[in-house]
Amino acid sequence: MIAGMNVIYVLAYWVLWPVFRIFKPTKTIGRQNIQKGGLYCANHTRMSDPLFVAYAMGWPHQIHVMAKEEIMHWPILGWILKHGGIFGVKRGESDVGAIKTAMKYLKAEEKLLIFPEGTRHQDGEFGAAKTGAAMLAVRTGVPIIPVYLPPEKKWFRRTPVVFGEPYYPKVAGRKGTADEYRAIADDLMERIEALAPQAGL
């Protein structure tokens, strides 16, 4: 096992391995864009999206996920998620605790997956991004890696997961302004949408 790897994460990964390697396998596109650390930002269509990203990366690439707070309180699953490196965020309000946790992982050069839209769009349409991802990337100085996931994940057919080129959002000052974060967020969603043709769908 790789040093520093979360044991619960690895165990859960291998328990679910048959599902995401046989029944709903992934096809990794843009593997060269997977970084040691960084902020991975994906469009959101299904609750299973984090698992498709994790299996597209492979088990040595542990990734933390910012998820909605409600699922962290589910029996058994909530415990597994919490101890596997997943943490909750209260939607619709400024969750300082979640922001601090996210910044801790990013500053430690670990991978963090978030869904900028903040909610699922099961029809595959792209929603407006919240500005949290922009703020986190600017404040921590880490690259953003856009990720595209198709809305439909078929049984026994590979689901393409596209990793785009990492980039560093630019701001005039040290922290960035609300307008700059808004512009970065809008640009991020355009970058994610631009990856869709690579999925071959």
Describe this structure in words.
There is one protein chain. This protein is α/β, with parallel strands linked by helices and 201 residues long. The chain is 35% helix and 16% strand. The protein has seven helices and seven strands. The protein has helices at 7-15, 17-23, 49-57, 77-83, 96-107, 132-140, 178-194, and strands at residues 26-29, 38-42, 63-68, 86-89, 111-114, 144-148, 159-163. The chain has a seven-stranded mixed β-sheet, with helices on both faces. α5 packs across α6 and α6 packs across α7 (178-194). The longest helix is centred in the C-terminal third of the chain and has 17 residues, at 178-194. The model has no long low-confidence stretch (mean pLDDT 88).
